[in-house]
Amino acid sequence: MSEPERGPAPAERRDGALLVVGDVVTDVIARHRGPLASGTDTAAAVRTVPGGAGANAACWAAYWGAEEVRLLGRVGADAVEWHERALTASGVRPCLVVDPQAPTGTVICLVDTGAAAERTFLTDSGASLRLDPGDWSDALLDGVAWLHLSGYLLFSEPSRALVAAALASARTRGVPVSMDPASAGFLVELGVDRFLALVEGLDVLLPSRDEACLLTGLPDAVDAAAKLSRHVPLVVAKQGADGAMVARSGTASAHVPAMPTAPRDTTGAGDAFTGAFLATLLAGARPEEAAREGCRAGALAVERVGGRPPAPE
After folding, report:
1. Interatomic CA distance for residues 143 and 173, integer angstroms
2. Residue 243 included in any domain
3. Closest Cα to residue 14, out of 175, 149, 170, 166?
4. If 275 and its partner were Cys, which of 20, 57, 134, 160 is the partner (CB 3.0–4.6 Å)?
5. Structurally, how many domains does the chain consist of?
6. Contact 43, 31 (CB under 8 A)
7. How far apart are CA 272 and CA 278, in angstroms?
8. Are 154 and 180 in contact (CB under 8 A)?
9. Structural domain includes residue 3
10. Residue 6 lies in a domain
């Protein structure tokens, strides 16, 4: 008997919660204009805000209308109450494990306030990558219709083991699983072959253009998305100002254009896309329509400072 085809069925509403497993960190965002001045001061506007790719995506999914969003992450005792309040205020039900040793992860985001609003990250993962199989329970999937994993979980041994446990649990229960690869820089360290082996059984992959090209060795994002979709049934490659490419089973099936925007800070734009995409997919939309909503969310995100959506009214 052949195995059932993987990947989400088109236009199928899924009743139940979205469970995101991933990083919860504190972002220190420094917005400066022009190159950094080595050895002296560079004027900047500095803000401290809640962040983390997994947490950001969860908040955007809730903002985009997902009925119930849950988040499993690990933080230090230094900031657990602050992060719980921020997540709850965004409509996300937090399940935060307090690490007895490591502090909450911190990311310094250097944002050039020029036209592209490009950013550079300095990352101290802290407690966020210390999630381990002991933090996982099959009961976390009770009432869950979709599981989303932050790719940052693959960049430490304990959280890689958690990913394996979560994937096995989801497969047993028939819960679809998606992942955002998270970081081209960390992917280089992990290795392409190892990444593809670790995500075996995934239903949806949401890479950036750079990540898709890195994972396939192809310079063209369309070709890269098509090739990746031979490993994962549905690939949605985020291409920033060029929109998104949807690919299925080895074929690029649709290009979704980006929404016009005036970027201030591109931090979290991909997370916004992911959250809105998943919320729309869970509501019963086809992947192309969900990608369109993802582009809308990404456009809104880059007009804001920080990686989270506007506060609920």
Report:
1. 11
2. yes
3. 175
4. 57
5. 1
6. no
7. 10
8. no
9. no
10. no
In tens, the pLDDT along 265-292 reads 777 899 999 999 999 999 999 999 999 9
Predicted confidence at residue 4, as pLDDT, reads 41
> Would 76 be classed as within a structural domain?
yes
What are the residues whose beta carbons fall under 8 Å from the beta carbon of 96, sequence distance 6 or more? Answer: 24, 71, 72, 73, 74, 75, 80, 83, 84, 87
The domain containing residue 240 runs over which residues? 17-35+45-302
Side-chain-facing half-sphere of 248: CA atoms under 13 Å: 12
Tokens of 173: 């229960």
Identity of the residue numbered 184: A
Side-chain half-sphere CA neighbours of 36 within 13 A? 9
Please report, for the domain that includes residue 119, its CATH number: 3.40.1190.20
Residue written as tokens 């970081």? 183
- Chain-centre distance for alpha carbon 218: 23
Closest Cα to residue 122, out of 267, 299, 308, 264? 267
∠ at Cα 247 (244, 248), nearest 5°?
Answer: 155
Low pLDDT (below 50) residues in the chain: 1-5, 9
What pLDDT is recorded for position 245? Answer: 95
